[in-house]
Amino acid sequence: MRYVLAVAETGNFTRAAAQCFVVQSALSHQVKSLERELGLTLFARTSRRVELTSAGEAFLPAARACLEAAERAVVEAAAAAGQVRGRLSIGVIPTVTALDVPDALRRFRDAHPQVPVGLRVGSSRDFLREIREGVLDIALLGLPVTEPPRGVAHRELRRSRHLAVVPSGHRLGRRRRLRLADLAEEVFADFPAESPGRAQSDLAFTAAGLQRQVAFEMTAVDHILDLVDAGLAVALLPPGTVPDRPGLRTVPVVDGPERIEHLAWSDFNPSPASSAFLRVLGFD
């Protein structure tokens, strides 16, 4: 069944064999043996093309569920024996500052070297959905103070207020502190609309009764800072995300956006690996 899933995911027997770390002939033989046992053809294949048949499409969800159940059984049996097995999947926002992620992973690896870790950068809202769906184990989130994590267990790590980031020669770069009203006429670079990273600044301007122009939308902090450095825009970013660069100045904003960084995990059925990670962090 694992080989069938690999062929379905890659659409190719050669790539599936490489993914499963077996030779192609062995993988093909096992798939044909399963088809004979079932009395069904799971794949329509030629020398150039592989596609799931209707029987294969129907077989796939249950096969995936069987494999997941088998893996879960091994993990839970190991946990009952005091061992940690399985895989740990972690989602991290690009602007995380409240946790030293490499250090946390090093400590977890030292304690549980047999557990592989998958680390992915993405959006807080996507991570919350994936934790609720059981796809993701742990996530580091950054959310507006008005948007607490829902449907998951979570721990608050840090609250912070954004800094204004302006080009080094900007008229506001010499100020000791600013208000949002001082920035309202500036051109901004920010995260994409509707993202949690953007929402923090949008909410702050709305609460202050101000409007602003966001001319550039970027998903990466480095790209936002490059635009500021080039004199094309200003930005609002959390402390700790702006490196010491000659072309940039940071200024506190007394009524600037606030955000909370959270550590989140499943409140329904956390995996043994995620529970072990929480223990390493001292959050058990």
From TrEMBL:
PROSITE patterns: HTH_LYSR. GO terms for cellular component: protein-DNA complex. The keyword Endoplasmic reticulum does not apply. GO terms for molecular function: DNA binding; DNA-binding transcription factor activity. Residues 1-53 form the HTH lysR-type domain. It comes from the Bacteria. Pfam families: HTH_1, LysR_substrate. Keywords: DNA-binding, Transcription, Transcription regulation. SUPFAM superfamilies: Periplasmic binding protein-like II (SSF53850), Winged helix' DNA-binding domain (SSF46785). The keyword DNA-binding applies. Belongs to the LysR transcriptional regulatory family. PANTHER family: SMALL NEUTRAL PROTEASE REGULATORY PROTEIN, TRANSCRIPTIONAL DUAL REGULATOR HCAR-RELATED. This is DNA-binding transcriptional LysR family regulator. It comes from Ornithinicoccus hortensis. The lineage of its organism: Bacteria, Bacillati, Actinomycetota, Actinomycetes, Micrococcales.
